[in-house]
Amino acid sequence: MNFSRSHDTKSEEFIEHYLKFRKKAAPPSQVTAFLCWPPAASVRLYRRLSSQMVPLCVHNGCSRWPYPQPPGPDEMALFLVDGACHCAISLLDQANASRLFDPPNTWLILHSNEDEVSQHLLNDHNLDTQISIEGSSDNDLDHLQNQDHKTSLDEWDKKEESGPSIKMGGSYQPGDIDPRLEESTRLDVHKWNALMNGLNLHVGTQMFLGIQTLDGGFLLVEVYRMGRGQSVVWQLFAEWGSQDVIRATSEPELSRRRMNLHLAPLRVVVVVTNNDTLQHFYDIHNKHIDSISKMGFVLARHAVEMLNASLVVRYDPSWGYMVNGSWDGIVGYLQRDEADLGGTAVLYTSERAKVIHYLLMTTPTKLGFVFRQPPLSTVRNVFTMPFSGTVWISSAALLAVCGLLLYAALQWERLSGDNMEDPKVNDYLKSMGADQKVSWSDVVLLSVGAVCQQGSPIESRGTPGRIISLFLFIVVIFLYTSYSACIVALLQSSTNSIKTLKDLLHSRLDLAVEDIIYNRYFFEKANEPIRRAIYQKRIAPKGSTPRFIKLEEGVAKVKKGMFAFHFEVGTGYKLVSETFEEDEKCGLTRIPYIQVVDAYLVIQKRSVYKEIISVAFRKLQERGFQSWAWNRFYTKKPECISRGSSFMSVGLIDCYPAMLVLVYGAMCSIGVLVLEILVYKSFIGSLLSMKLFVSLLLVAAVIIIVAEAFPSSFKEISEADPPSIYGRVLGFISARLANIGEVFQVVWRALSDTLAAIFSSRETPVISPRYGGHMSLLK
């Protein structure tokens, strides 16, 4: 077993103080030491570090050095290497092949004044052998600088030939090596520089050399590379001397020490879906087109300028989706190490998170179905809404009481005989039908006529009857006025009943989606039942073309009403502000569909630029650049400042319940006429009282009309929780009336056949003046 030829305790003290220094900023989770020290020195080092509560694993002697293992995720490992060991360079080559120089790993290589073994290894090592970095040769960089940008989207797929389209800055010139390294140490700087150039070092590498000075102290030097194809940078980081305290000579935070990349190239890929965007990345011309890309590119450009790097831009029409087993778009560029940063924010998915790293949120993107709230009459029967259930019941009870009292007064007037002494008046009253008997149907017609502001063929000639009629008309006129005023307001009102995706699925609104690649992906991949049903039934039903349309077309349909359009609101609201009338901007509602968080800035997995890019973008946030860019390229939701300033026209759908009552009333009258004819022709009148039969028929007709014209009232009562006895009865009745249409069809066919047979054999019916010309039963 070979050990170092000489060893002093200064190295042990320096390592101990270095760990104390590191623990103040970012303490390592574990320390792995590869040493060639005497056993006693290794034991002393183990004891020193154990007192600092630092987990340590010491491998002493080259024959005991294992293959360096990468630490677990999110672990900050420190690798300590004795530069005097003859197998140190082999260890560095193995670590280089395993990418152990990537953050957050830290390396500390010790070099003492007596390290003859290190000098021997440097002389024997083939310094001409360089570890290649993909796409990082100087010729490639010069080619990237001189490459003209492309404006045709047809050449996006030629990734290897397309090159960057924008290049800012020139070539990087490495700084001079600190002369103190040669004056105060015995380090062969040029040979060590050639060795470091053969390693895959980068701007995120934390490689430190602890170089012993001639006076017994140590210089802590960090070695890294600014970018691909650049020379290695040597920067003095700290000093350790007789005071036993490490004194930092530069910023302790890596992100602050390396914010200047000296024009090293930084590759950015941006999503472009329209050729026009290439000419308007910085202005606000058609800012609703590729807004997320324009905002992301402007922020990336400011961040690159803050880092003093050269911007190399590529374009692609896709954010990144799995196609034929491989990723395309931004995700594909980052996965294949063809880009360092995504210039367009990317929505989060678990599949993408496995191959790229989501750094921070830069674009507060909001997606969803946007629509104008439909008129209230499209979802509710507005003719039942002016009064509450209690008012309806009270009004009906009042009409019933007035009807009973009026019937009693009219009957008393008929029974009291003629009270008029003037025979001419009596004759006139008789001609008006005042001497005729009063039936319940007459009283019902009088009450309904009062409600509907209509007259009646029957009038009371006595004081009691007139008083009752007067109070009836007074009460009804107040009810009529209140009802009419409420109806006018309700017909101009919109509903807020559509609040969830389930409401949207079962609504009368037509649905469509903006034709953009991420919408197609997320809608086709939706697996939640409601979202899947919306896509399969409302967006892309079988046998029809999927409803993916342009943004301008969708916003125009939203303006007309009864249409829900899914788009990115920051871009769509620009068209809404420009094309909608002021009153049309009121009532806009958004229901989210895509179950993702806001779009995030993305970089490579284990990116070497992770820390400095994160700091640069957070500075842009703190200084207001992100808010400025959002306000520049996005539009806020239009404000409603003139609600109720205009009126909507009443359509057929608004009058549907009223027309339904009219239609059912006409059908009932025709049915009664047919039944009168049927009863008269078949001599059923002798067996069944016509008045009773007609009364029962009218009651059934009223129940049918109410159930059909006002189904919401029955539904609300029957679905009450907990259900009352009254609710259960109405629920039973409404359920039985659900098939009333089929029953009417069967009865109508039977009546038609019977009438055809009767009219061919019976005599012509007699017309009775008692019923105003209607058919009646006369024997």
UniProtKB/TrEMBL annotation:
One of its GO terms (biological process) is detection of stimulus involved in sensory perception. Its main location: membrane. Keywords: Cell membrane, Glycoprotein, Membrane, Receptor, Transmembrane, Transmembrane helix. One of its GO terms (cellular component) is plasma membrane. GO terms for molecular function: ligand-gated monoatomic ion channel activity. Residues 133-177 are annotated as: Disordered. It is found in: Cell membrane. Residues 390-599 form the Ionotropic glutamate receptor C-terminal domain. Signal peptide: none annotated. The keyword Cell membrane applies. The chain crosses the membrane at residues 391-410, 470-491, 656-680, 692-710. It is a multi-pass membrane protein. Residues 140-162 have a biased composition (Basic and acidic residues). PANTHER family: GLUTAMATE RECEPTOR 2-LIKE PROTEIN, IONOTROPIC RECEPTOR 20A-RELATED. Belongs to the glutamate-gated ion channel (TC 1.A.10.1) family. This is Ionotropic glutamate receptor C-terminal domain-containing protein.
